[in-house]
Design the sequence.
């Protein structure tokens, strides 16, 4: 045990001050800004905007599924285009960009006590390339033939053939180019997030004193840097197949009675590359959510996080394990049984560190002073939802169960619960939590409560029935069920019910957006630290933090991030930059 | 996918080694005070830019490891016909080695503050790297002239794809190198010049290493090597 005496006589900071870029005009201050906080807001706004497009696309799908044959403009082709773009936008352009580009940029420098990211210019470039990727993606809606309808997994050979919307038009090409751009842009940002955590931590901020939010984002970024190249390789090779006529993935194939010039390629090769990226992607989205939720729960239950070390190890462990489970997405591709056995085993093993995290969250709540604020409600809802989605994951991780369920709505319900609803709940919680720091004002509480309850209950009303439909054998990817004999009579109306719930939840988000804008001017003044939290971002001299974050001197860190309700201390929280020893009676946790 | 898994294992080993020096067993809830002073857990003493480049090179390495994995998986299918490697590739390899050596000399000279040698080294490296790229284009021309077209066979497709991807990375490096070279004439402070020369050298050595690996792969030696390993193991 290292119990360092109160460090009142610490020599001045030895962490080298970084040279800050100082903007000279409105343009370089707000548009081509190199300040991570501005870049974070740019990332978040862009991701939210494109996410709204994806939300509307999901409405279109639900219109068709709930009321088939009613809407003429939703042709089968259009339905597949909606599905594809909805999935791709939500997973990559919304969730990945918002968690890493948005929260990563805002929180990493502030939480580790840095003035800014270590390579601000590259950071700025990262956002603009991301924006370009989004614009290329959007442009495919206006291209001849429309966007690609290959499904978000873009499996060849169908993705680049005539029958698939956009397959022989511009759709698939724009999609691939957009993904390649996104990966280039992300790599630039990712380098910043990783190296900032490695190199720019303020004095006293050891790795084991980092808030779990930073651990989550840091590990997710490392994973993303190693996983996105697989998608990059897959995209480049598919682009070659489509545009130049090579046969990396394309087998010999007859299309409309005509032998194509391709031959010999392996669609399975694409699936390996895609899922080598695709599975870590699940955790690239989940790990930042894990981290953020840990901090929300600890702050709003006024209690230190239970098992901090175990939480860190679990994050690192999940990150490493997630690279050896990818083939569980391919059980139905006809793989060798032992291969499937191996991947089923690794998949079930990953449940161990994940379960440790869930236990630790629950034990943090145990006998805590729980404040049911809006961020806390979202955090609690996340735990429940994540456990739900995780449990169905245990079903699908087993080969024998996965094979019959693989092409049903059960899978749709599973992955929406675990990587759709759960991370989005954390994003909402995090926005309610950090909005006061970003704007200096609180979000409206009443609107927040309304938004929470409609979103939370509504999401369950949408996705719980889908599990049931899936178990009855309702297939996914079908735009219309002409034969409903596999369903019990009482379930025939379920699809319309799900659709109506989807519209309700979607409309509730308008209240949230209104709240975001309304509160900038009319919200209650927040002050510097409205949640009475310990981490460094709440200790800045100004709110919102000015360029350079911490005024004249960087803070010095004397303690971990979770000193809540310390016995003997005057207040129920001790910020990380407050020196001195309190509560000698503290027992080791 | 075994190549990429081995690559990631190396990265994981490195990450694990680094993490093991970060006191992951610490009990932060019992520790107060500015302990960073005592135990020295601040960021590494290496310049931040070098660590940034190191992380980037790991990503680039990952990219080429994935291409290699895809190459081996595609190679196992029946329509694969290896293509004869143009002789000019040997010459190109020599030129790229020269380029790397020149940058190493420049980096040593920068440490000693011999600005003339630095300039000479930078220019030589730039010209030889350009020479390498031209040599690669010559190799492409030879292959297409002999009828080994991009779409004729997956082996050809991979050859153009992987050499092209490597060439693009050299091209990107040349942008950085030309900025450094311009700085060597325009009076960049010696400390900054030294750092940027060292960064260029690091990038160049890495791309040389990648080229040697790809060369072995495209020539078929890598496959033979793996075959021998497999036989030894079984």
Sequence:
């Amino acid at each position: 045990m290292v119990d360092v005496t109160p460090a009142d006589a610490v020599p001045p900071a030895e962490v080298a001050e970084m040279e800050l870029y100082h903007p000279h005009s409105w343009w370089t201050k707000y548009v081509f800004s190199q300040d991570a906080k501005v870049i974070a807001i740019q990332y978040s706004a862009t991701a939210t905007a494109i996410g709204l497009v994806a939300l509307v696309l999901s409405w279109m799908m639900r219109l068709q599924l709930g009321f088939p044959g009613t809407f003429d403009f939703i042709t089968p082709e259009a339905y597949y285009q909606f599905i594809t773009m909805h999935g791709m936008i939500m997973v990559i352009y919304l969730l990945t960009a918002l968690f890493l580009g948005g929260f990563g940029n805002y929180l990493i420098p502030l939480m580790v006590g840095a003035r800014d990211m270590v390579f601000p210019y590259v950071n700025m470039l990262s956002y603009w390339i991301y924006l370009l990727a989004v614009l290329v993606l959007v442009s495919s809606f206006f291209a001849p033939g429309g966007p690609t309808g290959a499904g978000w997994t873009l499996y060849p050979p169908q993705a680049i053939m005539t029958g698939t919307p956009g397959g022989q038009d511009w759709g698939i090409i724009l999609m691939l180019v957009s993904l390649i751009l996104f990966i280039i842009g992300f790599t630039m940002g990712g380098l910043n997030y990783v190296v900032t955590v490695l190199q720019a931590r303020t004095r006293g901020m050891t790795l084991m004193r980092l808030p779990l939010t930073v651990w989550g984002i840091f590990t997710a970024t490392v994973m993303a840097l190693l996983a996105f190249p697989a998608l990059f390789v897959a995209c480049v090779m598919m682009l070659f197949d489509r545009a130049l006529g090579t046969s990396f993935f394309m087998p010999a194939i007859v299309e409309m009675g005509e032998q194509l010039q391709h031959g010999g390629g392996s669609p399975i090769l694409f699936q390996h590359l895609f899922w080598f990226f695709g599975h870590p992607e699940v955790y690239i989205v989940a790990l930042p959510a894990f981290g953020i939720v840990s901090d929300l729960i600890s702050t709003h239950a006024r209690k230190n996080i239970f098992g901090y070390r175990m939480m860190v190890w679990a994050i690192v462990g999940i990150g490493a394990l997630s690279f050896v489970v990818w083939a569980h997405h391919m059980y139905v591709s006809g793989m060798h049984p032992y291969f499937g056995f191996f991947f089923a085993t690794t998949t079930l093993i990953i449940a161990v560190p994940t379960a440790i995290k869930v236990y630790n969250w629950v034990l943090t709540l145990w006998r805590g002073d729980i404040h049911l604020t809006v961020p806390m409600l979202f955090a609690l809802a996340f735990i429940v939802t994540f456990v739900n989605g995780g449990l169905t994951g245990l079903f699908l991780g087993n080969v024998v169960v996965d094979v019959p369920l693989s092409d049903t709505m059960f899978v749709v319900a599973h992955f929406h619960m675990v990587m759709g609803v759960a991370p989005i709940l954390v994003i909402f919680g995090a926005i309610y939590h950090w909005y006061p720091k970003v704007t200096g004002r609180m979000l409206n509480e009443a609107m927040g409560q309304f938004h929470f309850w409609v979103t939370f209950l509504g999401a369950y009303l949408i996705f719980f029935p889908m599990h049931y439909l899936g178990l009855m054998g309702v297939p996914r990817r079908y735009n219309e069920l002409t034969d409903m004999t596999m369903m019990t009579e009482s379930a025939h109306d379920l699809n319309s019910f799900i659709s109506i719930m989807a519209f309700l939840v979607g409309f509730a988000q308008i209240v949230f957006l209104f709240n975001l804008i309304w509160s900038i001017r009319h919200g209650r003044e927040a002050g510097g630290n409205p949640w009475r939290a310990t981490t460094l971002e709440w200790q800045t001299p100004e709110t919102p933090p000015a360029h350079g974050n911490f005024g004249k001197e960087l803070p010095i860190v004397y303690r971990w991030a979770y000193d809540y309700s310390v016995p003997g201390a005057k207040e129920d929280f001790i910020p990380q930059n407050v020196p001195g020893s309190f509560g000698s009676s503290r027992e080791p946790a | 996918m075994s190549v990429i898994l081995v690559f990631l294992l190396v990265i994981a080993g490195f990450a694990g080694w680094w993490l093991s020096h970060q006191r992951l067993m610490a009990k932060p809830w019992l520790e107060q005070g500015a302990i960073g002073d005592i135990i020295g857990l601040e960021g590494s003493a290496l310049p931040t830019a070098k660590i940034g480049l190191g992380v980037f090179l790991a990503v680039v390495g990952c990219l080429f490891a994935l291409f290699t994995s895809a190459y081996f998986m595609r190679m196992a299918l029946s329509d694969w016909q290896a293509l004869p490697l143009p002789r000019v590739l040997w010459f190109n390899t020599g030129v790229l080695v020269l380029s790397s050596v020149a940058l190493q000399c420049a980096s040593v000279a920068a440490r000693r503050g011999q600005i003339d040698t630095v300039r000479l080294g930078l220019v030589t490296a730039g010209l030889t790297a350009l020479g390498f790229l031209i040599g690669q284009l010559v190799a492409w021309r030879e292959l297409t002239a002999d009828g080994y077209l991009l779409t004729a066979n997956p082996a050809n497709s991979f050859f153009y794809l992987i050499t092209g991807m490597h060439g693009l990375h050299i091209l990107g490096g040349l942008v950085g190198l030309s900025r450094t070279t311009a700085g060597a004439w325009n009076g960049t402070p010696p400390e900054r010049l030294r750092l940027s020369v060292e960064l260029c050298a690091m990038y160049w050595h890495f791309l040389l290493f990648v080229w040697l690996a790809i060369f072995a792969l495209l020539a078929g030696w890598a496959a033979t090597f793996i075959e021998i390993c497999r036989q030894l193991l079984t």
Observations:
- Confidence is low (pLDDT under 50) at residues 36-40 of chain B.
- Residues 95 and 128 of chain B are 6 Å apart (CA to CA).
